[in-house]
Amino acid sequence: MTFIIFIIAALIVVLAAIQLNKYGDVINQKSSLSGAVIGTLLIGGATSLPELTTSLTAVYIDNADIAVGNMLGSNVFNILILMAFDLIYRRRRVFNNLDLQPHLPIAITGFVMTAILLVSMFWDSSPSFLHIGIEMYLLVFIYLIVMRKLDNVEEDIEVTSSFTLKQGIIRFILAALTVFLAGSILTISGDEIAQQTGMNSSFVGSFLIAATTSLPELVTVLAAFQMAKYSVAVGAILGSNLFNLQLLVVTDVFYRKGAILNMVSPSSIMTALLGMIMIALTVYTLLRPSVKRLVVYTFPSLMTIIIYFIVSYMMF
């Protein structure tokens, strides 16, 4: 029965999150909040709300591994989504035709932030201030610097929706409430699955729940690849990953027993290390010169997918 509840909650989260993305875009189009940063925060917040809801619920039920694993695991799964589509559409050689300027700094920032988290996990009882890990303050500082640079880039937004601003806001709020309720059920049932089956809580958070909450990004990337909007696909994944790390900061704020990274199991370290490796492969793919041979071009994507499933099996 618990598995059935988990699956139903997962489906509701995915469907509601897709609506969040849709009506977040309506608000972005119809309001005066048309700057690049506001648009990124709005859409990024919409697609990342499932991660926030599930992690905060995990904090409430005192399961730090699910709370942290969900955020880190979602970032890992997001990279997997991007590389899997790159492999599927390999003949288009997507990364050969990307403009590095908007994507490379964000990818490198994601790598640096994940490295900071990994060091904090290795550091036994890392320092904290007001029950929040010092590393979280550093993550916010880096994020604000990156967002400030993005704010200097103006973006023309095409108005394509027939909804009014009021309709967009009301539907956005309703979808957000649905995600909140279904996401809470998803986390609680995931915690029960871990207890009933003996599976590692970190595995449940990093792979089962994280994969579910990342499905809205999968839909977004699929649509972007089908329309040949590859920059949108890459930007959505890399931007969502940065936003998820800021939501991890929020999670630590609500975790009152101390710095949340001090409470996680070694399995979460594996997830963070996996994230660093996968982001490093993404950065390499962005930086390397154009590749003509298909076998050589697909190597980073193929390696990313293989490494993901090897680590998943090891954690399981």
What does this protein structure show overall?
The chain has a two-stranded antiparallel ribbon. A hairpin with a 2-residue loop joins strand 1 and strand 2. Helix 1 (2-30) runs antiparallel to helix 2 (36-60), helix 2 (36-60) crosses helix 3 and helix 3 packs antiparallel against helix 12 (299-315). It has helices at residues 2-30, 36-60, 64-88, 100-122, 134-150, 165-197, 201-213, 215-226, 230-254, 266-287, 294-297, 299-315; strands at residues 128-129, 132-133. The chain is an all-alpha fold. The chain is globular.
* Separate helix tally: 12
Termini separation (Å)?
22 Å
Largest sheet: 2 strands, antiparallel
Shape: globular
- Report the β-strand fraction as a percent range: under 5%
Oligomeric state as shown: single chain
Question: Got a strand count?
Answer: 2
Structural class: mainly alpha
Low-confidence stretches: 34-39
pLDDT averaged residue by residue: 82
Give the SSE map.
Layout: H1 2-30, H2 36-60, H3 64-88, H4 100-122, E1 128-129, E2 132-133, H5 134-150, H6 165-197, H7 201-213, H8 215-226, H9 230-254, H10 266-287, H11 294-297, H12 299-315
Antiparallel strand pairs: 1-2
Considering the chains and any ligands shown, give keywords for the structure.
316 residues; mainly alpha; two-stranded antiparallel sheet; 12 helices; 78% helix; 1% strand; globular
